[in-house]
């Protein structure tokens, strides 16, 4: 607008241009006269660097259109949060019941205006506009907010357009003793004259907030006009009532953050946007419980998700209950594109292979199936979010003001698909909220520590423009995922697929072998919690993968136990056969994998590793496999092969534990029984024989048992039918002779004539 006015000014005839240059003011409004200093007992108003206040604005516009005088009254409310040191300004507006919030980002030279807490419009902040208090000034080559006195257009020391208040005297405004000042502003290009009459509370007047060191504005009366043809045109009168003035900011930073789930286009330059990995990072393995709530559904949908990346193999497990189905455990093997679906009620397992993605065959509404949608686009949200695409939206309180969250927002155009119309949403806004863990909590990231390390929520807002291209014809839906119990304590057994091998008759073997402490430790190292058992488990798991050169999914049910007498570690695990449905020639079968493991155990130091202790009693201990101890487990034993006892003791065998122990000569195991019991151990000098229970069924004996059971059932059924038929014929014969049958028995002398029972009046 200023450029257009300047062009018109340059094209004006010289006489008209001279008139503009000679324009001084509208004499009916105010005149620029010599400003006299105020009396010595009057304090010139001072202003703080931070302030928070509200303005009640009443605007009266007097105009003349075609000889008809019009008068328009407009009432508005504004709330200002001003911070000179932070170089920021927030203005909340309510104009004719239309609410909006403006955020001034002076460093970037942008102003973001939010409408209805859903939409954002970004414009440039004006620079060096003396008649706009919110315009920026240049300080040290940086755009900066004006001091508060210039923001209110009360005074300015700018030599180009100075504003010098003139003292008018004292008065009483709204019951407050005030000093009144007058300022006069003139816009020569537009023939506009503006007069402001400011009232400030006297220093001795005690406001409701108590005594303060700076001045308190109370009211401003504004008169303005456009002077044309030697007369005032379009006169405007305004009254500013300053309410709840505070020389500081009471709200915290989280209360001043932008609305939830709003993306501001062009607020930042593309090179100034953030990558999410610069501020947060997901660990290589984690477990989290998630609650999903959509705008379409009233009930929460929950699922438990586990994520692991090991040796370039990525696996995800999630447990949930699909709509109208049993609880399921789904394990996704991204490396081999395999999906294992385990029915937790029936114990059945379905193995599927896909070439186009795990959910490409399912076109589902995102608001009805939020769990499947999250897993389908997990790579976009977690594993590989877009680079240089996020805006930092400040700090906001989450979950009922219990957690302070850092907000990161981005947007995706033409995403995701809409199944019912075969179209896509116009835009999807993605908002992440991350927080700090408590100082006493262990770090959640095992690889690197980032500034924010605990996810709080993921908020998705879907927008679709209707037929009418306006803000009132936009379809909106949303999904919010809340994250709980986020941790990195994830064990390999949580990705166990051995049940799928058993239910689908695939090959597997139970193997066992022994380890020993080569140097640096005694039995106390294990039994007195000097070792990290979880790390020991990881070391053995890695050695098994390396020795057999197989994928992590083929090692299942890894269990470790320590024998204090022999100071040996007993290892038991299940080795699964080739990965199903792949038919890969380069993958080792179960026999070759077992042979390679045996070779690694029997040969030198191929199965040897070092571990530090937790309490530094011993710096490093070395653990090594015992040669010739690998064996295939076929039966379970309750006791060791030879043991000696000198006093009475009791052994507890529980259904929840089942550890295997083996020596180089004979594998010995402890098996779980069907019920928990306490077995007394005989008081003897030496137990020389093993207690074994070995039941082996062949395929022929199993078939015979099934056929025999069927024949016995058929014979029993025929016998029952014969006896029932004979009893029925006997009853009919006796009834014909004169004996009472069941149909002759009557318990009442008066018969009922309807289906409704009635009591006799006796």
UniProtKB/TrEMBL annotation:
Q: Where is the LolA-like domain?
A: 259-501
Q: Which InterPro entries is this protein grouped with?
A: DUF7959, LolA-like_dom_2nd
**Record-linked Pfam families:** DUF7959, LolA_2nd_metazoa
Question: What keywords were assigned to this record?
Answer: Coiled coil, Membrane, Signal, Transmembrane, Transmembrane helix
- UniProt KW Transmembrane keyword: yes
Where does the secretion signal sit in this chain? 1-18
Q: Does the keyword Membrane apply?
A: yes
What is the recorded name of this protein?
Uncharacterized protein
Organism listed in the record = Didymodactylos carnosus
| Coiled coil segments of this chain | 541-568
Q: Which residues cross the membrane?
A: 704-724
Record-annotated DUF7959 domain positions: 530-627
């Amino acid at each position: 607008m200023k450029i257009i006015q300047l062009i018109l000014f340059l094209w004006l005839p010289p006489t008209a241009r001279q008139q503009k240059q000679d324009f001084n003011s509208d004499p009916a409004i105010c005149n620029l006269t010599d400003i006299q200093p105020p009396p010595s007992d009057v304090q010139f108003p001072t202003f703080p660097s931070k302030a928070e206040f509200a303005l009640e604005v009443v605007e009266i516009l007097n105009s003349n259109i075609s000889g008809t005088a019009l008068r328009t009254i407009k009432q508005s409310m504004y709330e200002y949060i001003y911070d000179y040191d932070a170089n920021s300004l927030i203005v909340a507006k309510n104009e004719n019941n239309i609410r909006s919030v403006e955020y001034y980002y002076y460093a970037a030279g942008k102003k973001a205006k939010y409408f209805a807490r859903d939409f954002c419009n970004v414009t440039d902040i004006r620079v060096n506009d003396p008649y706009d208090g919110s315009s920026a000034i240049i300080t040290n080559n940086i755009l900066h907010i004006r001091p508060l006195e210039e923001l209110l257009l009360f005074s300015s020391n700018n030599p180009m357009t100075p504003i010098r208040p003139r003292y008018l005297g004292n008065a009483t405004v709204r019951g407050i003793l005030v000093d009144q000042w007058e300022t006069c502003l003139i816009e020569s290009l537009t023939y506009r004259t503006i007069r402001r009459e400011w009232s400030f509370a006297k220093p001795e007047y005690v406001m409701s907030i108590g005594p303060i060191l700076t001045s308190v504005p109370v009211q401003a009366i504004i008169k303005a006009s456009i002077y044309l043809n030697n007369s005032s045109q379009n006169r405007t009168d305004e009254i500013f009532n300053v309410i709840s003035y505070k020389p500081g900011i009471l709200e915290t930073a989280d209360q001043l953050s932008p609305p939830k789930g709003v993306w501001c286009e062009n607020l930042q330059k593309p090179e100034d946007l953030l990558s999410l990995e610069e501020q947060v990072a997901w660990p290589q393995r984690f477990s989290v419980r998630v609650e999903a709530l959509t705008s379409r559904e009233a009930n929460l949908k929950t699922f438990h998700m586990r994520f692991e990346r090991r040796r370039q193999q990525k696996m995800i497990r999630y447990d949930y209950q699909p709509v109208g189905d049993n609880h399921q455990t789904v394990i996704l093997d991204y490396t081999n594109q395999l999906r294992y679906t385990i029915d937790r009620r029936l114990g059945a397992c379905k193995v599927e292979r896909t070439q186009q993605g795990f959910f490409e065959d399912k076109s589902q509404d995102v608001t009805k199936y939020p769990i499947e949608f999250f897993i389908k686009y997990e790579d976009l949200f977690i594993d590989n979010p877009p680079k240089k695409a996020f805006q930092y939206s400040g700090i906001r309180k989450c979950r009922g003001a219990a957690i302070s969250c850092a907000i990161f927002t981005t947007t995706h155009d033409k995403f995701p698909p809409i199944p019912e119309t075969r179209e896509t949403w116009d835009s999807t806004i993605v908002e992440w909220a991350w927080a700090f863990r408590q100082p006493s909590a262990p770090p959640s990231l095992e690889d690197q520590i980032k500034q924010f390390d605990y996810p709080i929520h993921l908020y998705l807002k879907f927008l679709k423009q209707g037929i009418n291209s306006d803000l009132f014809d936009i379809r909106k839906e949303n999904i919010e995922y809340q994250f709980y119990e986020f941790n990195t304590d994830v064990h390999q057994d949580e990705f166990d697929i051995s049940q799928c091998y058993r239910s689908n008759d695939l090959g597997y073997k139970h193997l066992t072998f022994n380890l020993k402490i080569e140097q640096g430790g005694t039995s106390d190292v294990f039994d007195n919690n000097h070792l990290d058992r979880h790390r020991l488990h990881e070391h053995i798991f890695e050695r098994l993968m390396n020795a057999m050169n197989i994928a992590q999914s083929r090692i299942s049910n890894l269990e470790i136990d320590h024998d204090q007498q022999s100071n040996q570690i007993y290892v038991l695990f299940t080795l699964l056969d080739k990965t199903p449905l792949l038919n890969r020639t380069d993958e080792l079968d179960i026999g070759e994998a077992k042979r390679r493991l045996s070779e690694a155990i029997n040969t030198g130091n191929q199965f040897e590793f070092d571990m530090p202790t937790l309490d530094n009693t011993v710096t490093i201990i070395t653990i090594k496999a015992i040669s010739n101890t690998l064996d295939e487990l076929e039966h379970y034993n309750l006791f060791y092969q030879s043991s000696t006892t000198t006093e009475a003791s009791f052994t507890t065998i529980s259904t929840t534990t089942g550890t295997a122990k083996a020596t180089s000569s004979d594998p010995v195991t402890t098996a779980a029984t069907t019920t928990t019991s306490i077995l007394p151990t005989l008081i003897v000098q030496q137990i020389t024989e093993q207690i074994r229970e070995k039941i082996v069924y062949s395929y022929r004996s199993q078939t015979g048992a099934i056929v025999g059971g069927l024949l016995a059932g058929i014979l029993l059924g025929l016998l029952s039918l014969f006896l029932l038929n004979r009893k029925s014929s006997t009853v009919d014969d006796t009834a014909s002779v004169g004996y009472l049958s069941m149909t002759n028995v009557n318990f009442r002398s008066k018969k009922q004539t309807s289906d409704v029972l009635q009591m006799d009046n006796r």
